[in-house]
Design brief:
Chain A is an alpha+beta fold. Helices cover about 40% and strands about 20% of the residues of chain A. Chain A folds into three domains: about 5-120, Sufe protein. Chain: A; about 135-195, Orthogonal Bundle (Arc Repressor Mutant, subunit A); about 220-295, Fe-S cluster assembly (FSCA) (GMP Synthetase, Chain A, domain 3, 2-Layer Sandwich), CATH 3.30.300. Chain A is elongated and about 70 Å long. The chains are: A alpha+beta, B alpha/beta. The structure holds pyridoxal-5'-phosphate.
């Protein structure tokens, strides 16, 4: 079984504030029975002061899910809503003297339930902004969805690159095969431009890019970069967009995305696709960024 | 209070008689069986005896059909890889989707290497469809590998009949009998099974010793090449103490076979009935009319297995669960999913697996301990109300996003 802290065990064996709360005025439901974790957080908020007078939970889930829920109810009681919203999932884990990496999602669920319950009280709609996949890298607690998103957004090709961007695979190396599989899957799902990939975060800068195999002169390099842009242009034009080279600064290639491409949901994915082609063509790790990210000249 | 161990499908206690048999082989008879001197020849004799003890339990025709390995996993890998290497013109493996990871993970990797793997589906009770099986037997199939008994539910596959069908088409047949050996009678010489895996630690021998049974005449390629041990079929100096222990364990299992299938079965049935009768919304999984005598796997709806295990552990009862949380994945056990057990229940499956050491008093204690634990967790569950499950659990619990 897992190595749970005494605090986790205690909150599991003697959960605080469990069961329905009759006069709750803020209720947050997160999770589902399919994924094996579901949490309902019930808050009783004093309208005049916004202070949380009472908090209860009902949880379907493993020991640490129940312990995280119990901890959360203890943490929020007596706080104002704004104070409560500053509680992070790490705070919940810390309150319990830590959770095993595989179980960090339990604390994330607690934080989400809190956001949902407060939104419910305020009459707002809360939407889940994170999706979770199977845990791939246990050393750094990185899941499959996160790895896939980063691969797509940055056009990554090797386990090494994935490690630079996400840390996944940087520990015991047991997950290298798993990362290779995700790389292969992204490649086969997305042979071209990544038009179908979800909107992804702005590409991050790798900490230690791989050295180029053979050094290109700057003229050769720019010619190759232009050729890549030419090759993707028809695809972009089909979607009423266009791309143009703005500048090359070392390993960073800045482009103007124009027309329908600029600012669209797919911008990051489009850049990721271009970046992947650049890396293949140039044989070195480069980053493709929108021209808006160009450092302003002093 | 003395802890109660009901996780014998995970591993078993080494029988004290097995330990006694092994001890001289650490300090006294420590020689290498290959050596000419007296230190070695004592060991050689002991290995021969152990081989015949294993042979007897399996009902093998020749003692040379017994190859000692390091574990069940090694035996499984050796069998399947050997069949593929020895028959390069055959590229297909047939197995089932409820095998142990020792088979399934290997098969997933073989698929990546370009081999074709057919995984037979199972029905609600974990039974395969023999017509589907027959339709898949063709001349590109290198090997069929089907487990004799399932580790999670105890469900028994008709491997003797499956082996006949494979043999009729000239196809090799392997069975992972890690859970079956020692619990149900096996008589290999009267079957068409070509290869069988067993693992010592499931039958009161130590961990780290296994056997691959290899029918005489079956084409073979070793996994480990090196010295001439095991007639060159599995190189590496013999784990003599463990081999002696396994031999003794096999002899004891022979003697206790009757007891296992009467008394252990009775206790298992009593346990299962005692739990099912006291608790609503729970059911036994697998093919309850055709399973190992020691295994009961019960799905408790609307609660999650890890919590049950932790509370059981607190009162000194050891079981195991197919829930996602205990396996480190986000999905409940592949066996439960293969049987189509609904998610409302699959996360709350608990396996109780008995051994000949369990007593009536222990079983009575477990029957008394389980209902309050289930009630306690259901009280915490958003899918459960005072009156039973929320009428429509999915709708009653409605996340704001979906
Ligand atoms: C059906 C089955 N096959 C294979 C194995 C693996 O055996 P070992 O632990 O000896 O490698 C197990 C044990 O967990 C098992 O239950």
């Amino acid at each position: 079984m897992w190595e749970y802290s005494d605090k986790v065990r205690e909150h599991f064996f003697q959960p605080r504030n469990s069961g329905p709360l009759e006069d709750a005025n803020g209720i947050g439901d997160v999770g589902s029975i399919q994924c094996g974790d579901a949490l309902r957080l019930m808050l009783k908020v004093e309208p005049e002061t916004d202070v949380i007078l009472d908090a209860h939970f009902q949880t379907f889930g493993c020991g640490s899910a129940i312990a995280s829920s119990s901890a959360l109810t203890e943490m929020v009681k007596g706080k104002t809503l704004d104070e409560a919203l500053t509680i992070s999932n790490q705070d919940i884990a810390d309150f319990l003297d830590g959770l095993p990496p595989e179980k960090m999602h339990c604390s994330v669920m607690g934080r989400e339930a809190l956001q949902a319950a407060i939104a419910n009280y305020r009459g707002e709609v809360w939407s889940d902004d994170h999706e979770e996949g199977a845990l791939i890298c246990k050393c750094f607690a990185i899941d499959a969805v996160m790895i896939e998103d980063v691969i797509k957004a940055n056009g990554l090709n090797t386990v090494e690159e994935v490690t630079f961007y996400t840390k996944a695979g940087g520990g015991c190396a047991a997950c290298h095969e798993g990362i290779e599989e995700i790389l292969a899957k992204v490649k086969s799902d997305n042979p071209g431009m990544g038009e179908t990939s979800p909107p992804a975060a702005c590409p991050a800068t790798p900490e230690a890019p791989k050295p180029p195999t053979k050094k290109l002169s700057i003229v050769e390099k720019i010619a190759k970069i232009q050729a890549v842009l030419e090759s993707v242009r028809p695809m972009l034009q089909r979607d009423h967009g266009d791309v143009e080279l703005a500048d090359v600064q070392g390993k960073k290639i800045y482009v103007h995305l124009k027309g329908a491409c600029s600012g669209c949901m797919m911008e990051a994915a489009t850049l990721g696709g271009i970046q992947q082609k650049m890396i293949e063509t140039l044989g070195e790790l480069v980053q493709v960024l929108p021209s808006s990210h160009m450092p302003v000249e002093a | 209070m003395k802890p109660i161990y009901l996780d014998n499908n995970a591993t078993t206690r080494v029988d004290p008689a097995v330990v006694d048999a092994m001890l001289p082989f650490f300090t006294e008879h420590f020689g290498n069986a290959s050596s000419i001197h007296a230190f070695g020849s004592e060991v050689g004799k002991a290995l021969k005896k152990a081989r015949s003890q294993v042979q007897a339990l399996l009902g093998a025709e020749h003692d040379s059909e017994i190859i000692f390995t390091s574990c069940g996993t090694e035996s499984d890998s050796t069998a399947i890889l050997s069949a593929l290497k020895a028959q390069p013109d055959r590229n297909t493996v047939i197995t089932t989707n409820v095998e142990h990871p020792a088979i399934l993970t290997l098969c997933d990797w073989l698929e990546k290497e370009g081999y074709i793997v057919h995984k037979l589906k199972v029905d609600k009770k974990g039974r395969i469809d023999m017509d589907e099986y027959k339709s898949l037997l063709h001349d590109r199939v290198a090997i069929v590998s089907a487990m004799w008994a399932n580790n999670e539910t105890g469900t028994i596959f008709p491997v003797v009949e499956m082996a006949e069908l494979a043999a009729a088409k000239g196809i090799m047949f392997h069975t992972d009998a890690v859970q079956a050996v020692g619990k149900i009678p096996i008589d290999l010489k009267n079957t068409k099974i070509d290869m069988l895996s067993l693992s010592g630690h499931k039958l009161h021998a130590p961990k780290g010793i296994g056997v691959l049974y290899l029918r005489r005449g079956c084409r073979f390629r070793p996994l480990l090449r090196g010295g001439h041990q095991e007639r060159g079929r599995r190189a590496g100096t013999e784990n003599s103490a463990s081999i002696v222990g396994l031999g003794m364990a096999c002899e004891l299992a022979m003697q206790k076979m009757e007891f296992e299938n009467t008394e252990v079965r009775r206790l298992r049935d009593k346990l299962e009935k005692g739990i099912l009768n006291q608790i609503t919304h729970c059911f036994a999984t697998g093919d309850v009319s055709n399973r190992l005598p020691n295994t009961s796997n019960i799905a408790f709806e609307y609660i999650e297995g890890e919590g049950i295990l932790m509370l059981l552990n607190k009162v000194g009862i050891a079981g195991s669960s197919g829930s996602a949380c205990t396996s480190g994945s986000l999905e409940p056990s592949h066996v439960m999913r293969a049987m189509g057990i609904p998610y409302t229940a699959a996360h709350g499956t608990i396996r109780f697996s008995l051994s000949v050491y369990n007593t009536e008093e222990e079983i009575d204690r477990v029957i008394a301990a389980v209902p309050p634990i289930v009630a306690q967790l259901r009280k915490l569950s958003p899918y459960w109300t005072d009156k039973g499950p929320a009428t429509n659990p999915e709708a009653a619990f409605a996340p704001t996003y979906a």
